[in-house]
User: Fold this.
Amino acid sequence: MAKFTDTITIRIKAGDGGMGAVSFRREKYIANGGPDGGDGGKGGSVYIEADRRYYNLSHFYKDRLYKAKRGVQGSGRNRHGADGEDLVILVPPGTQVTDSVTGDVIVDLVEEEKRSLIAEGGIGGKGNAFFKSSTNQAPRMAQEGMPGDELEVILNLKLIADIGLVGLPNAGKSTLLSKLTNAKPKIADYPFTTLIPNLGVVHSSKKEFLIADIPGIIEGAHRGHGLGLSFLQHIERVKVLLFLLDATEEELPYTLNLLRAELNAYNAELVNRPCLVLLSKMDLVTEEELVGKLELLSGETVLPVSSVTEENLDKLTTQLEKLLEKANAQEGTG
Assistant:
């Protein structure tokens, strides 16, 4: 399996324009034919496009130069050179392209199949036919093509999902995702089993929606502790937050407050999104213990679930549908 990569720097070079030609008409019975050198072709441009067949940036190579073709040189008989072939760079949806020098965001590729120009190809040089004048009937000069744009960009992937699973390491996020969706994340009984984001599609009665299970958050994640920023950048675009708490824990209010505090420190807008608190692993506590846990979280909308016995998973899907409707209404997308 390819390594998951969500940030990489690459160099981009548009094609240079082709050189104009120096040529003179040479035909039988015409001793002194005039200039007939054609223009060079335009260099190929570089475009970038979101394609859902890619889910991360591991198909790129660090510091590799991605280069479009240069324009073809002009030739005699006023034949212009062909334009250089454009280069289209494919990235997963959610990729943000930033100029590494200025820090400016060039494009944020949220929509699929929307092609954006990153580097313009150089204009082709003029052939000597262009320079013919009343005072210079036989110009022996032609232009070189203009250089194409060249720049270094940072590609930064921020996953696009409807629901974001938020919880401490080993809270049961991956197991829940595997039960709700078609995803097959790595699952084991130790912290940080999930080292890369996992995406899964929920097929509900009303619609399909995408859930992201992202590496567990710990205190100080917004400062890069643990898996820190590699988690938080992927939660930015989600519409609904699903806080997953382990029912066997003792300090549930503390854990929930910690999760919200880390999200708030990274991006204050996150904590204002529609959310639901899940109490996972309900099969590992007694009914009496479960009632006590729910009392600790009074004031919150809490749903106990078990990924092992699949108890309340149908209710969860229904509640997520309602939360997505609420989120879409807030965004004005219906």
DSSP finds five helices and 14 strands in the chain. Confidence is low (pLDDT under 50) at residues 185-194, 221-228. The longest strand covers residues 150-157.
